[in-house]
Design goal:
The complex is a heterodimer. Chain A is built from nine helices and one strand; from the N terminus they run αααααααβαα. Chain A is mainly α. Chain A starts with a helix and ends with a helix. By secondary structure, chain B is mainly α. Chain B contains six helices and one strand; from the N terminus they run E-H-H-H-H-H-H. Classes of the chains: A mainly alpha, B mainly alpha. The interface between A and B is large, with 49 and 37 residues.
Amino acid sequence: MSIPAWIQEIFAAVMLLAAEMSAGQLVVARAWTRRGGADADLAVAQLLMGIAMAGILLPGLSTLPNAAWEAVFGVMTAWFVWCLWRESRGRGAAAVAGGHYAPYLVYSAAMVYLFAALMGPSAEGSGMSMPVPGGMSGMAGGSSGGLTTLHTSTLALIFALLLIAFTVHDLDRRAAGSAAYTAERLLVSPAVVKGGRVATGVTMAFILITMI
Amino acid sequence: MTAPAIGRERLGATAWPGTDARRVLHLVLAAIWLLDGVLQYQSFMYTDAFGQMTGGTAAGNPGVIARPISWNAALVEHHLILLNTVFATLQLLLARSMLILGLVVAAFIWVFGEAFGQILAGGGTDPNSGPLLALLALVYWPLA
């Protein structure tokens, strides 16, 4: 017996919900047309990570081959590196480490590692994962919840620890901003965005640890 | 309809309450519980071996300690998926600074999972992690 499939289904459902909320935030806030459009990249990242992780947890929900996701998150990682570098010129490296982009850089890099590791020799050679159409080798193999193992698992542990650190840091932050009175404001409220980020961090750490 | 002005109210803006050594250590405790919770979801924990490992710690201990450990191990083996999932989720929730619950869970781990660090069985070299987790929670207890 391994991890029950329904646990992975719950995590996948949470990730899809987080992705939906991010899509909703993009639509409601029209972030790309506003002066605060810099936040659009965070919402897009959250959206893509939610979809990708749901596909890892439940191969039936996979949308792209691993290589395509790896490329997507590679670009995203490069973007957040550039954002951090740009921000550090104005605020200094120490302030940037506690800013908005640092966690997303770690999330994106973890996703790159995850998809690269899923295609690596250990994942392919383990024979534990079920072959899935579209080239996606996810966690759940049918109803038994068979696991794929990751190669270079030390990196998985390092990423998991970083994700946990950022998640706890997020949990410790007070949600700032005005109270939400409408559904639209609720969707873009700091508490909801924070909730999505915490769920993403926990789910990513779950995936990494359980695939070591 | 006008879109919310997120330029001023940054999407997901949150304020960090500040840094001091006590607070940072408190966050470390939260991170430990979060890691504990994620580790509890590993596939090994959903095998019979987990219940057997837990029950195995009863060996060599006095009856008054061994019996509840064996009872707990049997319970875990019979309701493995439910109990392990509840326990893992509980530990995840402990990351949200629930100090009292943290103390209870630390005590539970020490008694039923670690058999008091096997001290009474004669094989213990240290009290194991249960008392340390409880001590950490007590250290961060609000003073006022």
